Write a sequence for this structure.
């Protein structure tokens, strides 16, 4: 079994074992064991990747590749391989899944089924990140998206059926658009006269006709960008997050929404470079609107999860914005921003879940002065807030600065204007983050009933610390990560020149 | 000499921060105060050692050398990369001494001031974090490093202002300080991006290099009539104006006084607020040479206006810490315009030297003023002038140290402030008469409000106190006494020997005429204060009545807070954020839900086809077959 | 080959029968009547089989056999349909078409 396929096999085995679990205790221990193995493999993968990079030649884009046909007549293969970007995304996923399991330590409603669905979702995500075949990738994408419906619909809160339905339908709609794009690529993949193929690396070698690129780029881009919260297709996210249980919000905002940016980068930009050049200005405007608009939207929200959902819209639009800037620095920023936002938003959702679990409200008007009662959660909340608004020393700063410097590499007026608009989001972000932190954590205790809330339990602390570690590591010593990603970006960038 | 050990000066506070921050529960307060103080003491000693060696041996051919030790921290592109490192030159060394001195004193003082507070350890952790950030800022080798630490001092300032986090006013002040400076930093960041894009570097050495792209080639690019580099520098100065509370970003500083008093002394009087001055000084050659000092002129006028504006407001405030806050703003305005009117070479660069000199002396006497004010507040638990009076009998040491600091800031001959202020006024006199006159007026106003405060606190009406106020403990008195000594002898340092714009010492002499005018105005201010406030009289109220509207305007700080509140509440929240939220809920989401509803409606309409009547189905089947048959028939034909 | 009667007349008869059947099938409200209409359609088909067989292939008998087959099938089908109708009657106490619309939407 090769090192990558294990990332799909381990979760499947975990799920199979979980079927025999009897109660919550067994279910969570099994899931934790499985996912800890996964986390260990992810960290091992980083090391193995760096080692393998030394051995292979510079031109090799993907390492650990493997190719098994599984549907010969349409030339569909199980093709896998990773570069630095997939590796760090896999690591991100592993971190968030483990943290999510810790946060769900005390889930009481259908625990076994919950963990099974959660891990199925994770399987899809891991599979997505290792796939190099458009069709296989699409299959894994759907595996990741569908369990969302169950997770929100069954374990959610509030208008959960409506939110689950809205989220799933909008993402399915995007999938439909995406599949048009993917088949468009597939049927144009033999411009050189060979067989049609879904293999990303093969398609990149045979250039797709420019007309087809211009036609299909928006399909692929929008198809992926909807899950990356592209304005105006972001509205599934606030209601979906608000209804989802904590671990699901974490996984969804932390990982699933990253599939969008990753797909745009890996497929839309790489396979359709001419189309990308043709369409960038249009989508840049949308992304810019998303950044500012999400931030302003977050200012006015009253529900903690809505604030974070709009903040995610803003931060993920920044990823799309950076990707559309089409240069190395900005792309590097986009990848790091994906990582950083994944970790930070997961932290935020975990913290909101902890506050909600204790006070049973997410209305900021009804919360206040929590830090005095829950010092650990309060302190982490403040730190997360500061990290979220891009304080140096945390990952967000590194990402944002890469994006901004990259965006500034375009000297024309259009890019200058939108860049300045996007940079101004750092102020708006500060406003809504401090408003939230100041209101719920600081100030006098609003509700006397909150005076005796239970302190953070060990599993909650472990979950939070687990997420905080990479945030600080990326934020304080970004050089290695940044260089590692940059090497992998180069072949993708060359396609555009 | 190898100065790389200087890196330890900021790293010691960082280590203390991590230690106290991570183990705040485990470390008893009695120890944490000592850990913080000793650590900063070590940094202080190292700084003095550095300064001693640098100023003694740092010259080659009469020019102070610049030493840089750096390491790439993050690479953006081949040209642009953020380095972390230390840069040793006269102003950096001078600032090292200032920051570590004040920080060390404040640590010692806080051990007494914060005694018994719940968050004692947390307080020292924050102080250490601030010291680390500020020292990192001072030692920065490039624009981006300074920006990084700039943000970190902003964050630690946020944490310290909001230290009493259960108090709503403290939380509001902390938020305000952070957001206003963040807004200014937005300009700073754009400025950095602009300058770095066109010059291809973040490095101070390269930016200030007379042969570098920025200085030698500023005319190559222009935007709206000004060089892009001028725009960049103006935007960078915006960041400096935000941190240094220059107009129109000053509104956060008075509110920042919600923080504990030692914090006000350290951050909002002596160190962080002069970061803007330091930033301009750091880029002084660039400011001076690019487009014949266009940006520098703006610095001068912003500084002069802020200085006058703040001095006027300070007269009418009743919260003693707010008076000191406006005084700080006014004095920083002094430093700003001193830089603004300065030229570059030799004696022409008097303004630069004077600005740094004033920064140094101001740090000493203003920190002392705050610590003394803190001592008073500690004794009577109130910030307001109306609750004070006749305290000289109860608190002799506080009284004496406050008096020394007040005399020093008023520019009375013999005290530190006199020397630095005189140099500044001399620089202005030589280059800009308008600013000189405003400077003299501010000198008079400074003496007036400072002695209004002095007489109001220590003389005046003999308030009867419920508990007789007591003198502060030695842990607080020692730092005050040390700073009092510094507020006198600080002025006798020959700054022009050490800190100059072009790194070459020159000889500065007192201009006796100007000195006489300035100190005369200062003493006049003191006399007026003596007449008005020594004994409780009704004259101040009468004067206030005469000025009427002007007085009201001044007492309300010219309604700047209200303007800001209007802009944020009404325009940003009311006209942008609320409509955006509404738009999102009703238009964008409405469209999506609308699509869903339309689908449902269509399906409702067409579901009648599935009537359940087999005869309808048969009819559909038959007619379908017939139509198909006809179509096929015609196609075949 | 039937004297005095041309094939057109017979085919006209069977067509009329067929369309009466179709008409009845669509319009009758009673299930029994619908069933009878189906019988008419089947009979029209059976007549056609016999006639066309006689005119085109007088030496063979497949058409006649088919018509017998149809009659047998019709009988079986009627039995089955009646059974369904009786069961339906037990359920809804009606043999009207409009009462059998429970399977809609």
């Amino acid at each position: 079994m090769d090192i990558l396929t294990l990332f799909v096999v381990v979760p499947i085995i975990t799920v199979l074992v979980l079927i025999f679990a009897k109660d919550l205790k067994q279910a969570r221990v099994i899931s934790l064991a499985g996912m800890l193995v996964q986390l260990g493999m992810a960290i091992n993968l980083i090391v193995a990747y760096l080692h393998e990079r030394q051995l292979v030649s510079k031109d090799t884009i993907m390492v650990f590749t493997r190719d098994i046909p599984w549907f010969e007549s349409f030339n569909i293969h199980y093709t896998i391989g990773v570069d630095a970007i997939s590796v760090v995304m896999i690591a991100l996923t592993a971190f968030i899944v483990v943290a999510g399991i810790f946060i769900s330590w005390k889930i009481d409603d259908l625990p076994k089924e919950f963990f099974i669905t959660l891990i199925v979702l994770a399987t899809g995500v891991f599979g997505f990140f290792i796939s190099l075949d458009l069709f296989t990738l699409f299959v894994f994408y759907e595996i990741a998206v569908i369990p969302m419906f169950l997770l929100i619909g069954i374990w959610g809160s509030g208008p959960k059926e409506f939110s689950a339905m809205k989220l799933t339908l909008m993402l399915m709609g995007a999938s439909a658009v995406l599949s048009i794009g993917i088949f468009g690529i597939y049927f144009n993949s033999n411009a050189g006269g060979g067989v049609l193929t879904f293999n990303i690396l093969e398609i990149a070698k045979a250039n797709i006709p420019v007309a087809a690129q211009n036609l299909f780029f928006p399909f692929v881009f929008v198809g992926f960008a909807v899950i990356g919260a592209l304005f105006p297709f972001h509205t599934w996210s606030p209601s979906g997050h608000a209804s989802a249980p904590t671990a699901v919000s974490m996984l969804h905002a932390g990982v699933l929404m990253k599939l969008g940016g990753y797909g745009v980068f890996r497929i839309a930009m790489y396979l359709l470079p001419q189309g990308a050049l043709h369409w960038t200005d249009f989508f840049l405007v949308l992304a810019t609107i998303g950044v500012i608009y999400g931030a302003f939207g977050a200012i006015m929200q009253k529900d903690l999860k809505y604030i974070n959902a709009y903040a995610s819209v803003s931060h993920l639009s920044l990823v799309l914005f950076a990707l559309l800037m089409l240069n190395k620095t900005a792309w590097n920023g986009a990848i790091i921003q994906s990582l950083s936002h994944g970790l930070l938003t997961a932290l935020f959702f975990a913290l909101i879940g902890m506050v909600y679990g204790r006070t049973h409200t997410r209305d900021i008007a009804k919360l206040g002065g929590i830090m005095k009662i829950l010092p650990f959660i309060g302190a982490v909340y403040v730190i997360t807030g500061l990290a979220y608004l891009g304080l140096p020393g945390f990952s967000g700063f590194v990402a944002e600065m890469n994006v901004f410097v990259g965006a500034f590499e375009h000297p024309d007026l259009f890019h200058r204007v939108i860049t300045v608009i996007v940079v101004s989001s750092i102020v708006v972000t500060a406003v809504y983050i401090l408003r939230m932190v100041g209101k719920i954590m600081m100030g006098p205790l609003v509700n006397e009933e909150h005076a005796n809330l239970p302190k953070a339990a060990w599993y909650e602390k472990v979950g939070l610390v687990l997420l905080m570690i990479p945030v600080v590591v990326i934020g304080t010593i970004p050089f290695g990560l940044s260089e590692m990603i940059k090497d992998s970006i180069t072949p993708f960038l060359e396609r555009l020149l | 000499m190898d100065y790389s050990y200087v890196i330890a000066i900021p790293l010691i506070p960082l280590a203390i921060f991590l230690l106290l921050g991570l183990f705040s529960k485990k470390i008893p307060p009695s120890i944490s105060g000592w850990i913080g103080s000793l650590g900063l003491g070590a940094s202080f000693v190292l700084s003095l050692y550095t300064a001693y060696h640098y100023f003694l041996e740092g010259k080659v051919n009469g020019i102070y050398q610049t030493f840089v030790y750096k390491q790439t921290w993050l690479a953006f592109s081949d040209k642009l990369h953020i380095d972390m490192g230390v840069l040793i030159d006269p102003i950096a060394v001078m600032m090292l001494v200032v920051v570590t001195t004040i920080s060390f004193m404040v640590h010692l003082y806080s051990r007494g001031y914060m005694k018994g507070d719940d968050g004692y350890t947390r307080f020292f952790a924050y102080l250490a974090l601030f010291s680390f950030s500020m020292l990192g800022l001072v030692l920065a080798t490039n624009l981006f490093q300074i920006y990084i630490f700039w943000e970190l001092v902003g964050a630690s300032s946020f944490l310290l202002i909001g230290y009493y986090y259960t108090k709503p006013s403290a939380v509001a002040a902390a938020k305000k300080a952070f957001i206003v400076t963040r807004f200014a930093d937005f300009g700073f960041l754009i400025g950095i991006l602009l300058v770095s894009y066109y010059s291809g570097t973040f490095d101070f050495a390269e930016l200030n290099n007379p042969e570098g792209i920025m200085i030698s080639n500023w005319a190559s690019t222009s935007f709206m009539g000004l060089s892009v580099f001028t725009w960049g520098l103006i935007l960078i100065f915006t960041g400096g104006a935000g941190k240094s509370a220059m107009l129109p970003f000053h509104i956060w500083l008075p509110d920042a006084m919600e923080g504990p008093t030692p914090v006000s002394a350290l951050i909002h009087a002596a160190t962080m607020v002069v970061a803007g001055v330091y930033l301009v000084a750091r880029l002084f050659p660039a400011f001076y040479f690019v487009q014949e000092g266009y940006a520098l002129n703006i610095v001068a006028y912003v500084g002069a206006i802020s200085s006058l504006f703040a001095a006027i407001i300070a007269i009418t405030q009743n919260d003693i810490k707010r008076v000191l806050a406006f005084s700080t703003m006014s004095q920083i305005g002094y430093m700003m315009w001193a830089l603004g009117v300065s030229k570059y070479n030799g004696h022409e660069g008097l303004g630069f030297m004077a600005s740094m000199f004033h920064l140094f002396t101001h740090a000493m006497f203003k920190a002392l003023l705050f610590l003394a004010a803190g001592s008073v507040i500690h004794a009577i638990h109130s910030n307001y002038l109306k609750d004070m009076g006749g305290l000289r009998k109860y608190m002799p040491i506080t009284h004496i140290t406050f008096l020394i600091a007040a005399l020093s800031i008023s520019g009375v001959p013999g005290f530190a402030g006199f020397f630095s202020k005189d140099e500044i006024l001399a620089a202005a006199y030589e280059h800009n008469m308008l600013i000189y006159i405003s400077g003299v007026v501010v000198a008079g106003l400074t003496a007036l409000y400072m002695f209004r405060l002095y007489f109001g606190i220590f003389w005046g009406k003999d308030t009867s106190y419920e508990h007789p106020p007591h003198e502060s403990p030695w842990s607080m008195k020692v730092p005050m006494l040390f700073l009092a000594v510094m507020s006198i002898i600080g002025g006798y340092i020959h700054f022009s020997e050490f800190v100059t714009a072009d790194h070459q010492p020159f000889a500065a002499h007192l201009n006796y005429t100007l000195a006489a005018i300035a100190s005369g105005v200062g003493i006049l201010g003191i006399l007026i204060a003596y007449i008005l406030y020594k004994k409780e009289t009704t004259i101040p109220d009468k004067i206030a009545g005469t000025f009427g509207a002007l007085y009201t305007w001044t007492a309300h700080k010219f309604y700047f807070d209200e303007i800001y509140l209007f802009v944020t509440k009404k325009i940003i929240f009311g006209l942008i954020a609320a409509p955006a939220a509404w738009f999102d809920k009703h238009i964008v989401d409405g469209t999506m839900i609308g699509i869903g509803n339309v689908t449902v409606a269509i399906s409702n309409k067409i579901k009648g086809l599935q009537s359940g009547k087999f005869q309808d189905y048969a009819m559909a089947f038959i007619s379908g077959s017939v139509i198909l048959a006809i179509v096929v028939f015609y196609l075949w034909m | 080959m039937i004297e005095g009667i041309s094939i057109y007349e017979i085919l006209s008869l069977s067509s009329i029968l067929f369309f009466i059947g179709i008409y009845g099938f669509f319009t009758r409200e009673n299930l029994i009547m619908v069933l009878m209409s189906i019988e008419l359609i089947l009979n029209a088909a059976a007549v056609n089989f016999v006639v066309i067989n006689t005119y085109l292939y007088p030496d063979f008998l497949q058409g006649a056999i088919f018509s017998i087959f149809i009659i047998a099938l019709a009988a079986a089908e009627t039995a089955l349909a009646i059974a369904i109708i009786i069961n339906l009657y037990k359920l809804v106490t009606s043999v009207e078409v409009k009462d059998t619309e429970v399977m809609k939407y």
Q: What stands out?
A: Residues 6-494 of chain A form one domain. Chain A has a mean pLDDT of 87.
